[in-house]
């Protein structure tokens, strides 16, 4: 046998002896590690509840997620989704809470926990609401979520608080439109100002901001020479809020130009108030 052949045979024999002696065998498949948590779902769910009670919201959320991931068809998995949303909310992880809440409602819209999921979504947006001078995207999302809660689950334990927050958010959004509208008015951008005041009159008519909005519409329309709309805004203001200080200001503004409050046919202001059930 040649020296090269002898060397190859020696290496092969060494490998075989190593395998027989219990050493590493390069041809033997490595044992696969188990994936996920194979324990019963009630055990994992119980651990999640313990973590939640200990206010370890981060780990609790993960444990609830583990129930759904490893046992998606178990009875515990359904509630685990909404409870993960709650744990995320308590941990200040609002996007995750909203996502989990929406997922629950998509999968289980008619269950006992559905109002809780809707409330978590609304609260998650609400807790991100800033002052009226800032962008109000979260306020609008929260308002929509709370209005949905009231409409879909009027008998739920969350409905009363939802109605209260609807009022708060409507006033906040109206105040935001008024703040921007006043800015445009001071800058003599009357059309932009009118659009903001119009939002208040059409969308947030039952808020405390609507009186000033009607007066500012009188002011902006007069500045543009659109007298009919100015007179109508003042007339609607007077009909609905006769003792308002804003009506007195609107009335005085028209009087300076020899005008008086009166409604004109076809005005969007009149139609808006009539459509809402308020006198125009």
TrEMBL record:
GO terms for cellular component: Bam protein complex. GO terms for biological process: Gram-negative-bacterium-type cell outer membrane assembly; protein insertion into membrane. Coiled coil: none annotated. It is found in: Cell outer membrane. Gene3D superfamilies: Tetratricopeptide repeat domain. The keyword Signal applies. The keyword Signal applies. CDD domains: BamD. Keywords: Cell outer membrane, Lipoprotein, Membrane, Palmitate, Signal. Residues 40-234 form the Outer membrane lipoprotein BamD-like domain. InterPro entries: BamD (IPR017689), BamD-like (IPR039565), TPR-like_helical_dom_sf (IPR011990). Part of the outer membrane protein assembly complex, which is involved in assembly and insertion of beta-barrel proteins into the outer membrane. HAMAP family: OM_assembly_BamD. Belongs to the BamD family. Part of the Bam complex. This is Outer membrane protein assembly factor BamD. The gene is bamD.
């Amino acid at each position: 046998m040649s020296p090269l052949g002898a060397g190859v045979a020696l290496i092969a024999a060494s490998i075989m002896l190593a395998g027989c002696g219990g050493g590493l065998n390069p041809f033997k498949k490595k044992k696969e590690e188990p994936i996920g948590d194979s324990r019963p779902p009630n055990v994992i769910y119980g651990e999640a509840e313990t973590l939640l009670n200990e206010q370890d919201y981060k780990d609790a959320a993960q444990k609830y997620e583990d129930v759904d991931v490893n046992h998606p068809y178990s009875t515990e998995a359904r509630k685990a989704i909404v409870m993960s949303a709650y744990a995320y909310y308590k941990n200040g992880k609002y996007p995750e809470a909203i996502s989990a809440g929406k997922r629950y409602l998509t999968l289980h819209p008619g269950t006992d926990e559905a109002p809780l999921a809707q409330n978590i979504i609304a609260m998650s947006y609400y807790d991100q609401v800033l002052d009226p001078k800032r962008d109000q995207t979260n306020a609008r999302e929260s308002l929509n979520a709370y209005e949905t809660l009231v409409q879909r689950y009027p008998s739920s334990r969350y409905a009363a608080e939802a109605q209260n927050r609807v009022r708060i958010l409507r006033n906040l959004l109206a105040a935001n439109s008024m703040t921007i509208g006043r800015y445009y008015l001071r800058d003599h951008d009357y059309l932009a100002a009118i659009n903001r005041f119009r939002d208040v009159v059409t969308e947030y008519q039952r808020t405390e901001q609507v009186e000033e909005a009607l007066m500012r519409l009188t002011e902006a329309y007069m500045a543009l020479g659109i007298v009919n709309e100015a007179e109508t805004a003042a007339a609607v203001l007077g009909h609905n809020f006769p003792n308002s200080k804003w009506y007195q200001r609107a009335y005085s503004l028209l009087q300076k130009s020899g005008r008086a409050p009166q409604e004109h046919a076809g005005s969007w202001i009149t139609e808006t108030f009539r459509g809402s059930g308020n006198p125009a």
